[in-house]
């Protein structure tokens, strides 16, 4: 219903409004910048002659210029674009046990792999008297300060399973009726 009303107002006196717009004076274009007039002058023969004429003064200056180019020293390419380290890092074999296939085999000294980090955090959580920060630092070639902050700020997840009796007790409970 609303569309019909708006259509009536939109189409009211359309022809008169259209003829009024058509009969209006057209706006005059903005004046052109004078550089646009230079493009027309570029076709003139005097300007073409000036462009193609050789200047002896510039030719003598150009002859005085001497350019000597040298190629940069050739570099020996190493295999695959890999950069060789400036000093060889000492590496150690990882202590993974049964998780050996999951992680890297060699790790630089002073660093640990993810699987090793999870293992040592779990060992410390289960047996903190045996796996102290000093023992972990000596075992994995780490600094004591880093091991202390690792043990303080990172805690492995603990999986908790609820006994089956509690599940039955929860599901067997009937909801209260509101009266």
TrEMBL record:
InterPro entries: NDUFAF4 (IPR009622). GO terms for biological process: mitochondrial respiratory chain complex I assembly. Residues 17-27 have a biased composition (Basic and acidic residues). One of its GO terms (cellular component) is mitochondrion. It holds the Pfam family UPF0240. Residues 17-49 are annotated as: Disordered. Belongs to the NDUFAF4 family. Binds calmodulin. Interacts with NDUFAF3. This is NADH dehydrogenase [ubiquinone] 1 alpha subcomplex assembly factor 4. It comes from Emberiza fucata.
């Amino acid at each position: 219903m609303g569309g019909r009303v708006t259509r009536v107002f939109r189409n009211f006196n359309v022809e008169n409004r259209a003829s009024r717009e058509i009969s209006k004076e057209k706006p005059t274009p903005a004046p052109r910048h004078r550089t646009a007039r230079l493009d027309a002058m570029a076709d003139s023969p005097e300007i073409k002659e000036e462009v193609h004429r050789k200047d002896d003064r510039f030719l003598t200056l150009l002859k005085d210029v001497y350019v000597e180019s040298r190629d940069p020293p050739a570099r020996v390419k190493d295999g695959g674009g890999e950069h060789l380290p400036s000093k060889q890092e000492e590496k150690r074999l990882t202590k993974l046990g049964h998780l050996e296939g999951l992680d890297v085999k060699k790790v630089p000294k002073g660093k640990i792999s993810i699987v090793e980090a999870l293992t040592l955090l779990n060992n410390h959580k289960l047996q903190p008297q045996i796996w102290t920060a000093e023992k972990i630092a000596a075992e994995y070639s780490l600094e004591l300060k880093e091991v202390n902050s690792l043990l303080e700020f990172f805690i492995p997840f603990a999986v908790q399973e609820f006994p089956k009796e509690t599940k039955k007790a929860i599901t067997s409970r009937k909801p209260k009726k509101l009266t």
